[in-house]
Design a protein that fits this description.
Layout lengths: L1 H26 L9 E9 L9 E10 L6 E3 L6 E3 L3 E6 L5 E4 L5 E2 L5 E3 L2 E2 L1 E2 L2 E2 L7 E4 L4 E5 L9 E5 L2 E3 L5 E3 L5 E3 L1 H7 L12 E3 L1 E3 L5 H39 L1
Antiparallel strand pairs: 1-2, 3-19, 4-18, 5-6, 5-15, 7-8, 8-9, 10-11, 12-13, 13-14, 16-17
Helix pairs in contact: 1-3
């Protein structure tokens, strides 16, 4: 009974964690460029001075689904989609870089290019946008501006998006949904920043949608709820068996 309670308890705890991951994925089904978080669990024997029959449940192979989402053609200049394994760089409050495939860029109140309130990193640093300028974005990430009243051929280059290359060996998902270099990538490049991909391209006027499948996520939530209910019943049955065993022992004694 002790083994039964412990196994069911650890399983129920991990099931709640899986439910939280699935709920987060479902909440971001309409977030551009969002990559679904992956999580699973497995049974592991307890090591140490205990019976060999004891086991517990632990999280296994956490990560993210890096498959591409569908393209949504918005025709907006500051909306971009990226090639497979390409990422845009943004600056975090602590000055470090993080990476995202969300290409829904905005111009902040102070005139800088941002993504969800974070400054977009250009190859020369933050990208400042002139007031009332007509913007054009090339496929290599170069952003040009035509100021009000200027001739059509008087465009000026104001910056180029930092586009990096990242695959599962060089990039990993954080709890905030942004991606950062893995320990292997940091050791390879000597810093916690990924280098510019010289072949990186963007598709202006297009947004990559979330790769979360809402129907599959709903099915997973139902499965998690049923699994949790089953584990709670196992704990309840173990408790009832223990009470009956105590009654039998009290009678025989």
């Amino acid at each position: 009974m002790d083994r039964m309670i412990y196994t069911a308890m650890s399983g129920a705890s991990q099931t709640l964690a899986l439910q939280a991951v699935t709920a987060s994925n479902l909440a971001n089904v309409s977030t551009p460029g969002f990559k679904a978080q992956l999580a699973s669990f497995r049974a592991v024997p307890v090591e140490g001075k205990s019976l060999a029959t004891r086991s517990f449940v632990t999280a296994s192979t956490p990560g993210a689904d890096l498959s591409a989402g569908r393209f949504n053609y918005t025709e907006r200049t500051l909306d971009v989609a990226l090639q497979p394994n390409n990422w845009l760089a943004v600056t975090l409050p602590d000055g470090s870089e993080a990476y995202t495939r969300n290409g829904n860029m905005q111009v902040s109140a102070d005139g800088f290019l941002t993504l969800n309130g974070r400054a977009v990193v250009g190859e020369g640093g933050p990208i400042a946008i002139p007031d009332h300028a007509q913007l054009t974005l090339a496929t290599d990430g170069t952003l040009t501006a035509l100021n009000a009243g200027d001739q059509p051929n008087a465009t000026v280059t104001i910056g180029r998006l930092k586009i990096v290359d990242g695959d599962p060996t060089t990039i990993q998902r954080g709890d905030d949904g942004l991606f950062r270099p893995t320990a292997q990538a940091i050791a390879q490049f000597g810093e916690a920043r990924l280098p510019v991909d010289p072949l990186g391209k963007v598709i202006p006027g297009v947004l990559e949608e979330s790769n979360v499948n809402p129907v599959q996520s709903m099915v997973e939530m139902i499965n998690h709820a049923r699994r949790f209910e089953m584990q709670m019943k196992e704990i309840s049955h173990a408790d009832q068996n223990e009470q009956k065993a105590n009654q039998l022992l009290s009678i025989t004694s």
